Amino acid sequence: MALGEFDLIARFFQRPARRSALGVGDDCALLQPASGTQMAISCDMLVEGRHFFAGADPERLGHKALAVNLSDLAACGARPLAFTLALAMPQVDEAWLAPFSRGMLALADAHDCELIGGDTTRGPLNICITVFGEVPAIHGKTRALLRSGAGADDDIYVSGTLGDARLALEALRGHVSLPVDALARTRLRLEQPTPRVALGQALRGIATAAIDVSDGLLGDLGHILAQSGVGATIDTSSAIGLIAENHYPTWAGVDFSFDSVAITPLSLVLAGGDDYELLFTAPSSAREAVTAAAHASQTPVTRIGRIDATAGLRLLDAQGQPVSGRFDSFDHFA
Ligand code: ADP
Ligand code: MG
Fold it and tell me: Which of 3, 11, 85, 285: disulfide with 118, CB 3.0–4.6 Å?
């Protein structure tokens, strides 16, 4: 390696400690949890060829690697504090490391989330981040948003829009062709997702369950349903409303009559994946509070269905008729 391991860390990843008691440079970092809080911890790995294409833009990759982890904190309603970075790379390439760390640290700064340590080694490109956040706990009872709290008759909401990232992925795979500007916009959603950190925190005490949409709406909703022991009915017309022209000028010029693969606007919304939006439930009595949380966090949310006491997932069209079709979500081992 041209640049030594420790020089590399000092140059690209070591910055003065801010809120940590001790940051990069010793055997351990030290974090002091504030009283009355619990630590929310999550780990996500990005593997070349699996989660991103070889040759992916390093600045966007740095952003995305942290964004997917911040998205997990958002889903729990946690406030980001710090993260560690374990990085394997085939060689030391300063022209790659500089934009990679810039993209990652810019997002870190935007969320006041400090890089406090990590590990650096030679190997196939692999980026593994662990994030630490905090959530209040009152008399030891957590205020974190969990997957397990959805109750019968709760409303189901999703933030932002769904499907862009998958549409870009299918275009990059050569399965669909997109107009140049549509590819540029959807690609940004795929490569530089926005973690809904402010919304997640604003929903504490309002949402009964939450998850971030990484594998696809229906698959991730399935996790809430399983862990909450309930079922759901999704109004696909409101879900599809997420791709109405005002939401989705991007899709306006797209021809969905592909013959190679079964990609439709509905399949992209229901099973796209890589969206990093928040999917959450709240009682109907909390509709105003949800609207206020969305407003305060400047994040649009759309109500797309209802939790049922009966297990199972039902999809209805605008006329209330069942929608059929398979909408498989992403599974790395499928
Ligand atoms: P050790 O061998 O004791 O685990 P290392 O030599 O691996 O320590 O790392 C030295 C210091 O640099 C440690 O504080 C570690 O947390 C930090 N570090 C290593 N790699 C990274 C990285 N990619 N980003 C941030 N900090 C790192
Ligand atoms: Mg080490």
Answer: 85
